[in-house]
Known about the structure:
- By secondary structure, the chain is α/β, with parallel strands linked by helices.
- The protein has 11 helices and 10 strands.
- The chain has helices at 40-48, 69-74, 92-98, 113-123, 125-129, 140-152, 170-187, 198-204, 222-227, 229-236, 244-248; strands spanning 2-11, 14-24, 29-33, 52-59, 62-63, 77-80, 158-162, 191-194, 207-212, 215-221.
- The strands form 2 sheets. The protein has a 6-stranded mixed β-sheet with strand order 6-7-8-3-9-10, sandwiched between helices. The protein has a 4-stranded antiparallel β-sheet with strand order 2-1-4-5, covered by helices on one side.
- A hairpin with a 2-residue loop joins strand 1 (2-11) and strand 2.
- The protein is globular and about 45 Å long.
- The termini are far apart.
- Keywords: Amino-acid transport, ATP-binding, Nucleotide-binding, Transport.
- Residues 2-238 form the ABC transporter domain.
Amino acid sequence: MLTxxxxxxxxxxxxxxxxxxxxxxxxxxVALVGSNGAGKTTILNSISxxxxxxxxxxxxxxxxxxxxxxxxxxxxxxxxxxxxxxxPGLTVEQNLTxxxxxxxxxxxxxxxxxxxxxxxxxxxxxxxxxxxxxxxSLSGGEQQMxxxxxxxxxxxxxxLLDEPSMGLAPIIIDEVFVKIKEINQRLGTPVLLVEQNxxxxxxxxxxxxxxxxxxxxxxxPSADLLRDERVREAYLGKRKTNSPQEKGAV
Length: 250
């Protein structure tokens, strides 16, 4: 579905990505794992047309690296950025309705509006309960669900998610990742997931890439990377032991 080859990205004269190669197949969740500043968000921005790039980004065989961002979104590649960015003065349902419209007022989906709302409410019942509330009054977790639901209103063929767990309590993070899995499994929507919580990302995804300083350094099935000592040391923390010293530590 998505094939990235030799992708380089630039912010002015600064090169942020170096010959990145990534693939996302149908129905997959693929994670990008790495530390802050490694280039994870830049990859998503490059796919969405927000960054100056060289190299190739192909979607269903069509080169999209030179297309404008609004044309990319109309192709079904929808991006949920870091930080949620809901419209605080609009109701939940108004926020969802905004998700059906691309730049220039063109409807992203040819589906029925009420049908699209029903699909979102089936996955996020809490949004239906709060559909008349203003978005500013929602909790952080509810706002993240609203951001995901708004993207679903455009019937995405590929969903790009940037740090969906940021700023959320652990119990809410669990719920958000359950919903991401449900979107993938119920709707068959492929997901490219950027997540600093490496353990969470690897457990939720089918395959993953590790990026360091703008370069892909490891890739493979997520279950394998969870067991890889290099990944464990760098991103998952050292395995706990039951030594007497540890048990007695304060």
